Amino acid sequence: MFLKFIELKLLSREYIRVINSLTEQAEKEGSFPKLTTKDVEAKLPSAVLNQAIRDAKSVFKKTKKEKKRPILRKPTYYINNQNYSIGHASIAFPIIVDNKVKKTIFPALLTERDQQFLQNATCGLMRIVEKSGKWFAQVSLEIPTETTTGEQVIGIDLGLKVPAVAVTSEGKTRFFGNGRENKYMKRKFRSERKGLGKKKKLRAIRKLDHKEQRWMKDKDHKVSRQIVNFAIKNQVSVIHLEKLTNIRKTTRTSRKNEKNVHTWSFYRLAQFIEYKAKMAGIKVEYVNPAYTSQKCPSCSTLNKAIDRKYSCPCGFHTHRDKVGAMNIIHAPVIGGHSQSA
Where is the Probable transposase IS891/IS1136/IS1341 domain (predicted)? Predict the structure, then answer.
């Protein structure tokens, strides 16, 4: 069993070598050549080599756009859905053993949630990677969903001090995430990087960057899951999210929040909400965010909030971010129709 994993490690390195070699050749020639597996010398199963050629062509297309050839370094191994199979506690795919291509069975730990997804999904490309001495199989899935019926709409306002505020069309409100904790952790990572920078420990800085990204990603996953669960509980059929194009250029923020707004991934959180909502059969629509934090939901007058409090001369007052979420419910949908008031 141990020898199979050693062979898999060598094959994953070979996979990356082939891609880098082909993209370098294409860069010299100015175009990607027409290739088959017979034209490429590589110690890879033909089905996997075919995928490597396709990946190299895709990387070269990006090279032409960005005018710089990326050199891939992290070993990986891709298998298309016709050449692997997933069992109850195993995965089988082709590797080379004793110079012969053999579909080899590897033990795998599949959770009940994994099994549930696989029962109803169409499997796509599978990616094999090694992380911290453990091997992972990442499979793309196409999952059919049934759209939730009903008229409930939820508006979600994303921010720094409050990561997300959700308001349903019936007025039910919930705040998600901990903005203070987020800012504290980012300050902590920033301070540690500064100290490592003075000591010129570049490798340690890179490791710390990866640790920060994993922490932020985990927070986004948890907040997005809580939002979708809130939507399911309230029988929501449509989620409205702000189209946050150029948010870093347009957001007005204090000096102490300036670094946070330039490093926090609003887009990633929105993407996590979207894909989790779609899996639950909830439609996601993006709306124009103009004036959503200033417009009074009661009389439509524009007012500026003072700190986190919003007050209007008409008598309406509430939390500033709640105002944004309430207005997002009825804001114009980009490329579609807005919800009626």
Answer: 139-247
